[in-house]
Amino acid sequence: MPRKHSILYIRTLCFLLALLPLCTMAQAYRFVPVRSDSVTFLDRDITNFQLFPMLVSPIVDKPQPLYPPRAPLAELERQWRERVLPALNAVGGSGSETEAQGYAAVANFYDAQTLWLLTGEARYVDAMERALTGGLPAAMFSSPDASERLLCAQAVMDASQLVYATDTAGLYVNFYLNTMAHVATPQFNFMLDQLTAMPFGPMVKLRLRVPDGAALPLALHLRLPEWAVDVPEIYVNGHEADYDVERGYAVIRRTWRARDEVYMLFDLSPRLVSDGGNSFLRCGSIVYCPQDSIAADAVAWVEPAGADTLSRHPLYDLCYQAGSDTVCTRLRPYFETPQPLRRHLHTPGLRLKEP
Length: 355
Hints:
Order of helices and strands: HEEHHHHHHEEEEEEEEEEEEEEEEE
Structural class: alpha+beta
Radius of gyration: 22 Å
Number of domains: 3
Largest sheet: 7 strands, antiparallel
Shape: globular
Number of helices: 7
Strand content: 25-35%
Number of strands: 19
Distance between the termini: 59 Å
């Protein structure tokens, strides 16, 4: 073979080998993420999966490609059940939350991402959400380990392509965040506005923007988070919605038209959990840390603490009776709590449930 042809052959082979992961992914994954460059994040806090990673490192400026799964689905599910799930904690890491959680949260995030792309089961998004509102941002800004900070920032950036995803029949809303998105597939093409203060406010409004006069047959999948005490109220254009519950999603099947709106209202009431002198608060997906321990037999309650100059988010006080005195200790979101003050955090019984 002439040298010129040999070089061309080698280059073509390298090109085809480079495309192989993409072809394999197309065959392996059932769901297609909406590209991150088609999603605009509107807030400037931890819910902006594009902005905050770049504040940690300017080299984290785009999501990584979605590589093929490293093992068959049955094996990945077995590893999840036997290795990940028993140790998964409330902030998306493993084991005790008093220890550094960055590396564990990264590993669990990517395991859950792969399993969701293969199965479309909301419980894997629940695991990712724990990491995204707990272990990842906490390590991203406070870990002394530069490699840990970088890996956490990349995981958060990668989450920007998982807010929405599609299959041939519809759209999946995985995370409730203040965003605008352009959803374009061979089956449909429309704009979606999501207006919300989640995870700190209970209301979510989705507005579909399709051309005037156009009809859009679409199955809209709205994730029902594992932290939700009750099924949220769901309305379409002011009327109570009819929906089916499938794989952890409320599925609304209908023909959508211009300016159709979906309204959801979640219960974000604080939930206090105590165990042997360790207490924590959970409001939606956010875990709050106490700064002091309390006696195991103490009767404790939660009081709103208003705003704080050190935090942009709602704060609470954990109060309890000590003799004739009432003692209160401040609760802060896990991702804003310095590592030494996490020593009183323990999250028993907060394991993701198997279907």
